[in-house]
């Protein structure tokens, strides 16, 4: 009697529903044209959380003995606890990290369920990435033609004429989304290419190649329109993939390798088109490399390293980079207000310390290396093949040797020899993660749910696929007794994510009314008071209260805004509030930091110290009194001392 085969993945929803869930998870957050105040992309992030919750609900499947690995469950629990512990003071970010931990765990569990499970999970997501990317192409095209937006409100206005920014309103985010779409378009179209069979195979492959060429050109054109240097750098990863991966069909591999050249040609064409229209094209200026080519990144990295040198062991505290950097003396600081160091390893080090950062990164690398079998995928054993190299168990499917493209296994080896699965998504997963890692060295895309959750999915797919590929066949294995419980847990997690996103949106409405009231009947102070009751976004209402009447509110009102993001208005208000309550040295220390930013609005807030001085406070809440003239001779104080007063 033959041993039972590993239990296959059995999704709890029809393929059409899974495809719809994948589209909602990837395309909806990237293409939503709506924005909110004060957080312009909050609606995109909540849409991502809700859509991935739906994906968790629909994709729940009973795991095989492989999929119930204690290591994967432990990874999930560790990530969950770390998310809660690290983000306890910022509930909204904690919720997103919990969502990422759930997506990673669920994907890893299902990808490990059977040798072909990762491929089944990847197919709908790959097509969804293509749809999302082509949707971004449409948005980018409209923004290039009409910076004020269009298509009946489906395209957001561009922030810079002559530059595509996407509906996320950030060109680097648009660029990363486009490159991820390229990665997965390559993978699923290569799978379709290999599935072509019979006398019509040449025609079918020609059609696939034409569709791939058109899609790649459109995505590259939108990338050029974004003017993103980060995106241009990431094209090197696609070139490396084309050079390394011999599994890719030859023509598609050639087009992928020519991607950087195609990108350059399309950028030149767009530049010529813009000149003909007598309009601007930002990309032409972005690559001149005049002035500060780092866009202040070099300066913020220097400042972050100085902070790290001062707090090497435990860091400044999770989520407190902006606070520590703003209130620490940096005469050479960039003039913009940064809430992130624009480098993921550096950000982790400066906030949680070097030991914890090294431990975290080394653990992640070790886990990825341990599951490196995902690079080749689970071996497949071809069945008996005919002379054309076709597998009768999969009608019309050619069984090709991935290491020798164009040749059938039947021509090379006897039946029964296991070969690497040519359609395994492991390599596409690794390229996508590499794209996000490159972006994370220059910005912070993983602080956005519409990139963090796909990254968690990709990581889970790699870990689960690696476990399935490295596992030995289980003889007489049956589903573990906890399988129904794990399946129910995943469904419950999906429901909770959807409910959480809806509740967060309702909670945010209280804060929105502070800045954009539905009508003018409710007084501002009442709207602020209601907004301050928000458990997730109350810091925005505190900001409004603190900056409108700094001398009249308790210092504790400044606490949540200081931990979120400090700007000129908040610094001026905090300095006034400290001075009004007799904390003169601290108020002057805040003014000293304010002057370092050298911004127009910060200079306007300072008093004129050349003429007669008034001893009273300025009636304008955004101006400082004559007392601030003593800031030049005041003492620098520790940032923790300045924050401690807002209790």
UniProtKB/TrEMBL annotation:
Q: A GO molecular function for this record?
A: ligase activity
Q: Where is the Protein glycosylation ligase domain?
A: 164-188
Annotated stretches, region: Disordered: 384-421
The subcellular location is: Membrane
Query: O-antigen ligase-related domain spans which residues?
Result: 215-361
Where would you find the membrane-spanning parts of this chain?
12-34, 40-58, 94-114, 126-146, 174-196, 208-225, 255-274, 348-369, 447-469, 489-506
Keyword terms: Ligase, Membrane, Transmembrane, Transmembrane helix
Q: Which domain of life is it from?
A: Bacteria
Query: Looking at the keywords, is Ubl conjugation present?
Result: no
Q: How does it sit in the membrane?
A: Multi-pass membrane protein
| Residue ranges constituting the Virulence factor membrane-bound polymerase C-terminal domain according to the UniProt record | 429-552
Please provide an example of a Pfam family that matches this protein in its UniProt record: PglL_A
Its Gene Ontology cellular component terms are: membrane
Q: Which residues form a coiled coil?
A: none
* Matches recorded under InterPro entries: O-antigen_ligase-rel_domated, PglL_A, WaaL-like, Wzy_C_2
Protein name stated in the entry = O-antigen ligase C-terminal domain-containing protein
Source organism per entry reads Aquariibacter lacus
What lineage does UniProt assign to this protein's organism?
Answer: Bacteria, Pseudomonadati, Pseudomonadota, Betaproteobacteria, Burkholderiales
